[in-house]
Amino acid sequence: MKISTKIVLALLATSATSAWAVDGTIGGTSTATSGMSITTPDLIELSGVLDPIVSVASYSGSGGVDVTDDVCVYNNDGADNGGSQQYRVTAHGAHAVGGGAGTGFFLSDGASHTIAYTVAWNDVAGSNTGEAGLTANTQLGALQSGATGTYPCVTDNARFHVVVTNVDILSVPAATYTDTLTLTLDADDS
Length: 190
Hints:
Blueprint: E1 2-5, E2 13-15, E3 37-39, E4 44-47, E5 65-75, E6 87-93, E7 105-108, E8 114-122, E9 132-134, E10 140-143, E11 158-164, H1 166-170, E12 180-187
Parallel strand pairs: 1-12
Antiparallel strand pairs: 2-3, 4-5, 5-11, 6-10, 6-12, 7-8, 8-9, 8-11
């Protein structure tokens, strides 16, 4: 299974104004002042994402595939500047049937066979307890408990979880099945 990350970033917006500018006066020295203002938008970054590849050697033919990946969410909208550090996550796979909200996640052999899989998100690293199942192309919001305002993000603070059931794996012919799972995070100011 191939997993890739889509990182949603905004560019730093700068704005300077001369409303505070004061010219110096003539004399032996002259001091002038100029005010500056920098406005930063909400910025968010997802890092530390791995490709959970399950090979023939690691899949024994019994039991399903259950893979977790602890990741790091950076969000500059922290409580120290009046923000909530809340964010939303949306996931979609390259092989979603129909492509709209609510379509599932599927691994494909590139022909006509697919294997369904589920994706869950937890805004805490190291645990599946409290995770929420994701529906393809549908936002899951009001997440925050792990987001950090420290950049770069170095301590994992969230987790995604992929499950493929044994029944679904055994219902398709032998082949290599792949998908690209895209996770999109955006700041949630609500």
